[in-house]
Automatic annotation (TrEMBL), chain B:
<comment type="subunit">
    <text>Component of the dolichol-phosphate mannose (DPM) synthase complex.</text>
</comment>
<comment type="pathway">
    <text>Protein modification; protein glycosylation.</text>
</comment>
<keyword id="KW-1133">Transmembrane helix</keyword>
<feature type="transmembrane region" description="Helical">
    <location>
        <begin position="12"/>
        <end position="42"/>
    </location>
</feature>
<keyword id="KW-0472">Membrane</keyword>
<dbReference type="Pfam" id="PF08285">
    <property type="entry name" value="DPM3"/>
</dbReference>
<feature type="transmembrane region" description="Helical">
    <location>
        <begin position="62"/>
        <end position="83"/>
    </location>
</feature>
<keyword id="KW-0328">Glycosyltransferase</keyword>
<comment type="function">
    <text>Stabilizer subunit of the dolichol-phosphate mannose (DPM) synthase complex; tethers catalytic subunit to the ER.</text>
</comment>
<comment type="similarity">
    <text>Belongs to the DPM3 family.</text>
</comment>
<keyword id="KW-0808">Transferase</keyword>
<dbReference type="GO" id="GO:0005789">
    <property type="term" value="C:endoplasmic reticulum membrane"/>
</dbReference>
<keyword id="KW-0256">Endoplasmic reticulum</keyword>
<protein>
    <recommendedName>
        <fullName>Dolichol-phosphate mannosyltransferase subunit 3</fullName>
    </recommendedName>
</protein>
<dbReference type="GO" id="GO:0033185">
    <property type="term" value="C:dolichol-phosphate-mannose synthase complex"/>
</dbReference>
<feature type="coiled-coil region">
    <location>
        <begin position="85"/>
        <end position="112"/>
    </location>
</feature>
<dbReference type="GO" id="GO:0016757">
    <property type="term" value="F:glycosyltransferase activity"/>
</dbReference>
Amino acid sequence: MATWTDRAVGMGLVVFSILLFTYYSIWVIVLPFVNSDHAIHHYFLPREYSVILPVVAALVLVLFIGGFITVVLWKNKQKKKVQ
Amino acid sequence: MLFVSGIISIRFFHIFLSTFTMTKLMEWLLGLSLIGVLWSIVTFDLLDLRISDQYLQVAWPLPIYLLVAFGCYSLAVVGYRVATFNDCETAAKELQEQIQEAKRDLQKKGLHF
């Protein structure tokens, strides 16, 4: 048995990804076939955001990873200079 | 000059044809380009197929949708495996001993932590 924190984080990830997948699938695939005056459209942003948001999220992720690598290499260089 | 280069290129072409095996990379690229062509035909209306408006609205975000779906799947698999990974007591102990041994060995050789 993994520790309870591991299990909580793991199950949290699973639930989050299921929720995200469901919301995104309804947004992209189901909504075009629903009447434009149905109330459900209030819960979803305009359709353009279904493409813009993932692209922005991917960009943020790449920037974050790049920044992290930069910081680690920088710290490594500092340490080498001291030694 | 041109004649010789023509002969050489035909030779290479024949060798390529007779020894051609499709690598996994080429398979994936072929599959992806096929899907890309089909998607472009539907989205940019290249063949005048006159697809109904609702199906067009589903088609144009499809590549991003597939990427997001794949990302969700990967996240779920990682989360599930983190949650169900069993402790390995003996392996953990063994690993700690090896770490201590390596530290002592390196410190002897002059590396500072």
